[in-house]
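From the pipeline queue, job 12 of 40. The input is one protein chain; the requested action is below.

Action: predict structure.
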Amino acid sequence: MAWYYIVLIVIGAIFLFGILPFFLVSNRIYSVLFVRNNKKKWSRTVSWDDEELRVMFKTGEQWGEKYDQYRKTICINSCGFNLVAEYFDFGYDKAVIIIPGRMESGTYSYYFSEPYRKMGYNVLAIDNRCHGLSEGRFNCLGLKEYKDIMNWARYLENNENIHHVLIHGLCIGSATGLYAITDKDAPKTFKGIIAEGMYTSFKESFDNHLVERHKPVFPISQIVLGLMMGLVSGRSVTRQGPINYVGKLDKPILFMYSKEDIYSVHGQDLFDRVKAPKKFVWFPKGVHSHIRINNTEKYDETIMEFIKEYIK
């Protein structure tokens, strides 16, 4: 047998047994985490089986029922997608846009609304692209969805006469909000951002998930984020994230983190890069995105104090 046939066989064996399995696993992970295959996925229901999440969701639903008389469904078209939100118009001249994380809809966002209502803000609870009743198939980690946030703010200004808008983001939602508020075309109505569990880059959070599940970070992270997500989002997810944008921020920001969060663990690095007015608050309990349910009074007071002190 000629030597080049042997080389080809060796290369083929390496690909078949050493590389292909990682691509198959990575494709499965990408499909489960970032692709909406059917309308039931990422709908307006509890996203996964977790007792705290069920309590948060139920409490949020009760909040929505309590203020149902102020609620109306609104829709916009953003980047070719029909997007849906619930707007609670309490008659104020300010509003907050609550951006939930991956898998969650605007209904889940009701749970975080009360401190804003107390501070004189109307509440816009959005279904992110490819979540809830909104159209879309691919989650791009905010790298495309940030334009939707800017369009929601423009809707509030043009249709609801709202010229003062805060952003409240959870995990990916906080990154999405940051991309929106720091964009060169960001609406001037943005006045500040409240960020819970913001990661430095999504790779930080994703890699920590893999470690927790005893999965190899390399090469799965590079394939899922660098290749697959990069092709869909058009951006380098492995090299870009909030750490590249916080330095551009010229509006006040509140960072909130839990000491029990094992996914977003480098918030101090983000805080150190911010030149705008800023505040950083640690909470003792709560897994990722579950700070409020474990520290409700302090959570709400932190937001209200931040608004009083930092938001003009």
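Job complete. The CA atoms of residues 130 and 251 lie 29 Å apart.
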